[in-house]
Amino acid sequence: MGTATGLVGREAERARLAQALERAGEGAGSLVLVSGEAGIGKSRLAEEVAANATARVLRGAGSHSAPTPYGPVVAALRSHLRAEPDGLADCGPLRPHLALLLPELGEAAAATDRPTLVEAIRCALAHVAADGPALVVLDDLQWSDQATLELLAALARPLREMPLLVLAAYRSDGLPRDHMLRWLRTELRRAGVLEEVTLEALDRSLTEALLTQLLPEAPSPALVRVVHDRAQGSPFFVEELARALVAGGGLRPGRRGLELGEDGRVPLPDTVRDAVTLRASGLSDAGRDAVEVAAVAGEAFDLALVEALAGEAGVVELVERGLVAEGTGGRAGFRHSLTREALYAEVPWTRRRALHRRLAEALEAAGGRSMEIATHWMGAADPNRGRAALLRAAAESEAVHAYRDAARAGRQALELWPAGEADELRVQALERYARCAELAGELPEAAKTWRELAAIRSSAGERAAFAEAHRRLAAVSELRGEREPGFASRRLAADAFAEVGRRADAAAERLAMANHRRSGARYAEAIELAETAVDDARAADRIDLTARGLGVLGVVRAKGGEFDAGLETIRGGLALALEHDLTPVAAELYQRLSLALYDSADYRRAKDALDTALGLCEATGDEGTEVACVTCLIYVLRERGEWSRAAELGRELIDDGTAVWVAEGLLGVMQALQGKFSSARRMLTASRAVSARVGHYNMFVDATTGLAYVAAGEGATDEAAEHCRTLLTRWEDSEDHHYAVWGLRWAAAFFAGGGMRAEAQACAEALARMAADAGHPYALAALAQAIAETALLEGDASTAAEQLCRAVELHRGLDVPFERAQIELRAGVALAAAGERDAALENLGAAYRTARKLGARPLATRAATEVAALGESVAPRLGDRA
């Protein structure tokens, strides 16, 4: 039989990986996924590339039995340290963070966060490749911890600027639908960096080539056909079947090569399990003991540990027989996971349980990994000790921000808890599980667990802990888009905090509730909540919360119609924040000030306030307030006609994955106004769906208006009318005096133009109420146009012209060029109908010039059409481009 087998076929795959390694040598590294079914040759391909590489090679692999946070990457870095003990000595201030994963580096940092840990690992890889290109082979990622997969997603882009290639191999068959590898592929594809080599089954000719390497003589076509059919093109199955036939004497020479024996003494095994166990059947007693211990220990194991339990002679026999391969650092492992699975299944249950116990005890005595210890205790049918190890594993994973792995360990521990036992230790385990599930994005599980904790705390009369649980439940509910359940949880938390004298916590919850009602345009309730929050904050002597409360209170007062009083309240809170050097709070209050200012269409001062807020955010690193300021700034720039800058900021948010639905709604409206209807519809539909789910009134009416404009531009009149009716309905359920103004103004013109008198009048009535409550020129101008549209419908061109000219004058003091151009267009139409041709042309020309400057092609086209309808030569009046 052949002494060694080379890689058969795979020339194209090898060439691709060789090219990737060559690019890495030039400084353009990458992450390449290698996928395929079990036994298809992924590991062999990676090792072939590594064997032929001149680059430094690091190796790591996922563990089926006991995955640990960042396990494969840590193993790879540790393999580097074994070769170069000082290889990571120059990681500078990041070294203590790296020491959390590699204790041999020295004193670990007292605390870290996930971005710092990711950067520490990136720095370590950069050091590995500092003196020349490097290749990192990570195998069996289908069993990897989830922190590793999140890490790979984060490293994919930085690798592009490093002389380092990461080959990450995983088994694609049997991969669950919710496996993190699917998430990883999606993230890489979204980032435009997905590179994957997929291995397919061997065809018959390649099976023959492999058998030729494996057998002492060439195989006959009949033997090739039978082996190929049984192995289904899996190189591993071909190897195992060939070795089983040779070991069992099941072959004989034939006229055309080796054939199956006639007597059937050694039938060709139907499964790989049969093939593997047949190979192991010839082991000595010591070898059989060793293979059982090794199979129970795991796919990869510590040689000293297995030798201690089974003896050195047996382990040596396994290595000599080729059942296991000796690695580095005192480790060994089965050549393929399927080999270990087959051998493990052959260990009698009682023997298996006893071995798991002995391995768990030995690992505990040696200070082994908690997850590996837990696996063995569970295999030993000792749930209490398994649960204890799982709790330690959850804590260890949480400490290095591997939240998915911590949640998985915590969930397993809770499943092992005896029924009816609800002691404080279980409560602590529940809290850790809820916390980690929340941070891992497993929100349904987090919500269920926080709800259970709230019930436990309530039964025990622990009101403060009850409030904390509902506070966390509220946050999870809001992340899930369940705004009303979140609001209800915040109310329970606020009342419980107030009950136990924690007025500051009560204030914080009520501020969040007031903001919720503000975003839903329910201002009366928001005012009441904000006033109570300010009272609580003052009672707690919390100046920061008092200032923030005044900011929220001022915004909702301004939006509720008390504009001057609202501005004064916000400025009071701002003065308080500045007086006490509360820079982050001041940034938030400047953003609140902008909200009140652009409610009155005072976009110049709103922009000034936002510029100040963004400067403060940059100084303090307050990302949450900064995102809010940027979204507000996009809206302000859009209204002011600075569309290029607004689009640039919006795309940055979308590329960063931050407030995407808000950015898409704001950009979608601009694209609609520019006549880019297809992309506008996509963005606006997505934005409206999210805003409807989370109850965000402002974005919902904005996106709905944009969709109405798109539908009208595409000739979908019925759809446009339905969107306009939605605006009327939603406004009735709110206390809004700003966001629905432009939509209702446009809807009035649309309804009137279509002869829908009742709907046009309903828009005018709504705008009349807004103008009466707010008294701003913006609302008054919209009302004037709505009245004019109804007058035009009724044939009263003189009244229409008068009202639209008034609307134009009102807009001259506002900084809203697109809406002014729309009104000027309608004024031109009304003036033409009233016989005032020169004034009509003046307004139409102004509308055209503004539309051209903004790139609003539909509006510009309409203005040019109206000029032509007056018998005017378009080019002399508007320019050649018209």
Tell me what you see in this structure.
With 882 residues, the protein is mostly helical. It contains 43 helices and ten strands. α6 (146-155) links the parallel β3 and β4 (164-171). α32 (660-673) packs parallel to α34 (697-713). The longest helix has 18 residues, at 603-620. The termini are far apart.
The count of β-strands is 10
Shape: elongated
Give the number of helices: 43
For the largest sheet, list the strands in their spatial order: 2-3-4-1-5
> What share of residues are in beta strands?
5-15%
Main β-sheet description: 5 strands, parallel
Distance between the termini: 84 Å
Unreliable residue stretches: none
Rg, Å, rounded: 35 Å
Helix proportion of residues, in percent? 55-70%
pLDDT averaged over residues? 87
Counting helices, strands and paired strands, the structural category is: mainly alpha
Task: Put the structure in a nutshell.
The chain is built from 43 helices and ten strands.
Keywords for this entry:
mainly alpha, five-stranded parallel beta sheet, three-stranded antiparallel beta sheet, elongated, 882 residues, 68% helix, 10 strands
